[in-house]
Amino acid sequence: MSPAAVPANTTSRRAGVMAVHSVDRVVFSVPEIAAAEKFYTAFGLEVKRSGQQVDLYTHGHPHCWMSVFANGQAKALQYIRFGIYAEDIDAFRQKIEALGIACEPHPLSSGDGLWLRSPDGVAMQFIVADKVSPSAKTPSAPARPEARREAMAPARSRSAKVFPRWLSHVLLFTPDVSRMLAFCEEVLGLRLSDRSGDLVAFMHTPHGSDHHLLAFVKSDGAGLHHTSWDVGSLDEVGEGSEQLRIAGFTEGWGVGRHVLGSNYFYYARDPWGSFAEYSFDIDFVSPAKDWVSGDYAPEDSFYLWGPAVPEWFVVNTEHTAPA
User: Which of 94, 111, 240, 286 could pair with 162 as two cysteines, CB 3.0-4.6 Å apart?
Assistant: First the structure.
């Protein structure tokens, strides 16, 4: 509803720790661009189209969070770009070279920064950039038109559009959750927040971020499960789900509340079988203290309340490997 504000305290870092500080951009490809333009406009993002590419922004925020390309083929994650601090670039370069995991720049990229490939074959880019992950717990910011006289809810006809504030996190499919955890700890410097065995795991940056900046769920291959977008209230989670249904995007999961991360959620299913999530009130991991991670039974790791999980929620619809 309200324009996005810059996340609090964007200059913070944890002294003496080398780690990526943000998911700077997610890049993937889809069969045709018009469907992407329609879906993300309905979701509430600012969509800037150029030919067969759309760049996605949150309203009022200057950062490009995601780029989607059309190539006439099945949807596929192409690469993820992470932000790092300038003083860490040489140490990151040495680590990547020592481990022998460097790769050529992705052809859809500008080619700058450091390039490497994860054990799942996903290309990753490290680039010196401003921190765009929150560095403090982000406050609620409900913004709605004046209520009906003394009633708390506005008239349905006056409900304003929901505009996400920023990208909170990304969840990826992987055939080996433990292997990706070890890789992200060693190479990206991320730390485990919580996990459920080898089924799902959540990671944060020690420089301060939401409960998870990056997460993994077990599948038969790599791929993008969902991107998660912060909104300012539980009402905005629900109203966002309604604005998508009105726009014709009727499949999704929620509204509900997670256990790990604690956030309220609604996952909207996109035209390619992956998801964009409205997320509100997620736990925050401060750069000033260590988070005590846990390993939870499956029934305690997914959601506290909400509708039954659709069978297609954890289906990996990507059929082509990243370029």
Answer: 240
User: What residue ranges define each of the domains in the chain, with the CATH number in brackets?
Assistant: 22-133+162-314 (3.10.180.10)
Lowest average pLDDT, out of 54-63, 67-76, 158-167, goes to: 158-167
Distance of alpha carbon 8 from alpha carbon 136, whole angstroms: 6
- Choose among 10, 9, 242, 306: nearest CA to 132: 10
Tokens of 59: 């309203």
CA neighbours within 13 Å on the CB side: how many for 52?
11
Helix, strand and coil content of the chain, in percent to the nearest 5, comes to 20, 35, 50
Structure tokens, 265: 């959620």
SS3 162: coil
CB 201 within 8 A of CB 177: yes
The answer, yes or no, to whether residue 145 has pLDDT greater than 90, is no
pLDDT of residue 86: 96
